[in-house]
Input
Amino acid sequence: MNRSIVSQQVRAGECDPSGVRWIQLDEYVGLNEDDPRSFRAQLERSLFGPCAVAPSASLMLRQSKDAAVEIALHADAIAETGGIDLQLFGLGQNGHLAFNEPGSRHDSLARVVDLAEQTQALAAGAFAPDPAPVRGMTLGLGDIAAARSVLLVVIGWRKADALAQAIHGVGNTSRPFNALRTHADLTLVADAAAVSKLPQQVWTPK
Output
């Protein structure tokens, strides 16, 4: 996300974030509260700062001595607000959605998870010379599917294999994307590189 463009759109009135409540989807476990490599810090740099989002307008995951309690409290807070209207997220290179790794139950709820080796390996560069986190807090596939609308964005050739496997994975319960196939309001947005492994009859260039 280009922070400068977002900031300009807000100032020009082209983007009005007022009235929106932002909810964090997942987070690494074990980081310091102010660690710049956390998803929370990334959201603050790329979205909340440029959009002038007040702290009171967001539900964010915190680092805690008991991550299981933290994610449970987070889920309770979401329920108290009336649930999620629009769930926006991406697709991991191994097909994970949020930190729901392949093999996650399709009715899984908010919890602490062990991160797959591939997920850890892809994060290693951002955390070097420290080791990458091995656990994460995440909303479950059941929580995501409960959102009234779901928007999945897949960008780049590195996600092409994962997207192809997701699209052709009907009946394969190990693929997290299958938890959303019957969602009443699911939108998939992908660029040409991301759909390059799909037969052209599956997609229409825009």
